[in-house]
Design a protein that fits this description.
The chain is α+β, with helices and mostly antiparallel strands. 18% of the residues lie in helices and 40% in strands.
Length: 676
């Protein structure tokens, strides 16, 4: 009867966007009265939590160490699931597996007990003879805990405790110990339970033209984690998967996921809608279905994307694509060192939709006080502009104006972009100017479409003082708002300024280069698929000293090089140059020191050292053997007398009969005198 009344309402009332947003759709519960098998991982320290989400496992394990033999009961750890979904827990055996490591001993024997407390009921299992003997090294202890059939309420709590009553080491060394390990990907200790997990509902379809909006409602004790960490969530209509990216919103404690179905026909439509949620990769599959009938009278209108009344969630757990491009220009202006920086964030996915929705709600008094958009000045934005499903110029321009004073909160807040603005674009107190612009990339509607936001800043730097230009800016994510991201940085200096000693610290996963040319220095930094927890810091030591400027440094270096070449070539005018030619290989080495942006001291050292070495080599190079000089042509039959140089035995032709006669040796350069 209720469905029939709703159909009449949908047929008789025009389906404006304001009507659709105002309707409180009825929901049909499709799942789940039954309990589901689930793996609950041990997370945190010795007083930790139980969680079905393996994504919460970290790199480093938590541990508890028993270093000496014990004969009295000792608690290893207590882990709890703070809230459960009300329902029935069937009779079953819960399997608890915890990892261990025995070191500096031949083994250990343990008497341990695992206890599960559900509400006021307590169930336990202890090690038997076979499971009590622990071999040296790493292994697992398994407990099988029988749990009786029972009912639980929303206030019930599930608690798991592991205790050891006695531990005896076999052939112990001085540092014998038994270590229990959990909470990491390497040691994912867990308990296999069978409990009710959540309730799934499907809202009555909402209709806009030929767009049919189908919403699944998730109610669980896990909140947004049920969506963010689930392996997948899919909706099907008549057995066919609904394509496209859904829109996620929050309705009280419930998570609402809405798909847009475009397969409706004019007239009466009867469809089977099913929802499937994989909470874990290996199960359980939580699913349910319902049948709906509705009338479509208008095939026009609609945007192909659901427009929610409430602020959309920023992630479903997958994260949005992000590309960061930063262009930096270092120059000198009236004796001041200036750094102009343009940072562009190309954003897609759910974060782009959230930003578009926010621009269409500037000045909305109905926003939650926790929203990062709450309290923004509407400026010239009118009620007609607001919530129009289209971003008018006045909304875009007001967003840009408001961002100049609010960007730090919008970017860094836990309810915002969760990007640390001071690490990405710098500290606002250092800026001379800042401007912010938005590019909607040809699409002004509030739909799933990428956009970009650009921050242009100018700041004055102190010459010779180290500056952290860029640091890892996504390391504080509380939810998977972003996927791994792409980052591209290109920095250039003028002919009279230098980046100095520039370095990329803390990482080897990001490519980095620093080059120097006569027209300026260039820094390039690039990485794709950068993980959110990748740490890095880009530092520079900017300088406007003339000796550091690329052009003055180029001129000085060329003067040193050409001076060394000129003097060495002059000295070896009548000498052998083969050794000098070998040492000219120092020229490309000096050039590489310059191009790879080594400090000026290294450049001067390389060019000056090469020049000095060339000059020294020129001085010690031997003279060349000069060809015999013939004053006039002599018939081939006439022999020319020669004398041997007494110093180097070089034959010297005697071309004159004049006595005494002085002749210069062409070998060693000495002058000898012939008297007879």
């Amino acid at each position: 009867m209720t469905q029939f009344i709703l159909v009449l309402m949908l047929v008789s009332i025009p389906f404006s966007s304001s009507f659709i947003n105002a309707v409180e759709a009825e929901s049909t519960v499709v799942c789940c009265d039954d309990a589901h098998p689930v793996e609950l991982y041990l997370i945190g320290g010795s007083t930790g939590q139980l969680s079905p989400f393996s994504q919460l496992l970290v790199e480093d394990s938590s541990n508890a160490v028993i270093a000496n033999s014990i004969t009295s009961q000792e608690t290893v750890g207590v882990w709890s699931l703070g809230r459960v979904w009300p329902g029935a827990i069937p009779e079953s055996d819960w399997s608890f597996i915890i990892n261990y490591r025995v070191s500096d001993a031949g083994g250990a024997q343990i008497n341990a007990t695992a206890t599960v407390k559900i509400g006021s009921q307590v169930f336990s299992d202890s090690t038997n003879f076979e499971s009590s003997v622990l071999a040296q090294g790493e292994g697992q202890i398994e407990f099988t805990i029988p749990v009786d059939e029972m009912s639980v309420s929303a206030s019930s709590e599930i608690e798991l405790e592991l205790s050891a009553r006695s531990v005896i080491f076999n052939v112990p060394g001085g540092d014998a110990e038994l270590e229990f390990l959990w909470g990491s990907e390497e040691f994912p200790s867990s308990v296999s339970a069978e409990i009710p997990l959540m309730e799934l509902s499907i809202d009555e379809p909402q209709i806009e033209g030929s767009d049919i909006y189908l919403s699944a409602v998730l109610d669980s004790p896990f909140g947004l984690d049920a969506l963010a960490y689930s392996d997948s969530i899919e909706m099907f209509v008549d057995g066919l998967k609904v394509d496209g990216d859904p829109i996620e919103t929050q309705r009280g404690d419930s998570i609402v996921v809405t798909w847009t179905w475009l397969g409706a026909e004019t007239g009466t439509n009867l469809i089977d809608v099913s929802i499937r949620l994989n909470l874990q990769s290996s199960g359980p599959l939580i699913q349910g279905s319902a049948q709906f009938s509705f009338e479509v009278t208008d095939t026009g209108g609609g945007t192909g994307t659901f427009y929610p009344q409430d602020e959309p969630l920023r992630t479903s757990g997958v994260g949005s694509p992000l590309t960061v491009t930063q262009i930096i220009d270092l120059s000198s202006d009236d004796g001041n060192l200036k750094m102009a920086r343009t940072t562009t964030l190309d954003i897609d996915g759910e974060m782009a939709f959230w930003m578009r929705w926010g621009m269409d709600h500037i000045g909305d008094n109905d926003l939650s006080s926790t929203s990062v958009l709450f309290g923004w000045n509407p400026g010239g934005v009118t009620e007609e502009n607001r919530e129009s499903r289209d971003i008018e110029n006045v909304e875009k321009e007001q967003f840009e104006r408001e961002m100049k004073s609010r960007y730090r909160t919008y970017m860094s807040d836990i309810n915002g972009m969760q990007i640390q603005s001071e690490k990405l674009i710098g500290d606002s107190s250092d800026f001379d100017t800042i401007s912010i612009s938005v590019d909607l990339m040809g699409e002004t509607r509030v739909v799933n479409h990428p956009l970009s936001i650009t921050f242009s800043t100018l700041q004055t730097l102190v010459s010779g003082q180290q500056v952290d230009v860029l640091r890892s800016f996504t390391s504080t994510q509380t939810a998977a708002l972003w996927q791994d991201y792409t980052i591209i940085v290109e920095a250039t200096s003028s002919v009279l300024t230098s980046f100095g000693d520039a370095e990329l610290l803390e990482t080897e996963a990001i490519s980095f280069s620093h080059s120097r040319y006569p027209w300026g220095e260039v820094i390039k930094m690039e990485s794709t698929s950068t993980t959110l927890d990748e740490g890095f810091t880009l530092i520079i030591q900017p300088n406007d000293n003339l000796l550091f400027g690329p052009m003055p440094l180029t001129i000085i270096t060329l003067v040193i090089i050409f001076a060394g070449l000129f003097f060495s070539l002059s000295i070896t005018k009548n000498k052998h140059r083969r050794f000098l030619m070998l040492e000219l290989t120092l020229l490309p080495i000096a050039a590489l020191v310059y191009v790879f942006a080594y400090p000026p001291l290294f450049v001067f050292g390389a060019s000056g050292g090469a020049s000095v070495l060339w000059i020294l080599t020129a001085f010690v190079s031997p003279r060349r053997l000069q060809p015999a000089m013939v004053a006039q042509e002599t018939p081939a039959t006439v022999s020319i007398p020669t004398v041997n140089c007494p110093a180097c035995a070089t034959p010297i032709p005697v071309l004159s009969e004049e006595r005494p006669l002085k002749i210069t040796c062409s070998g060693c350069g000495k002058t000898i005198k012939i008297v007879g």
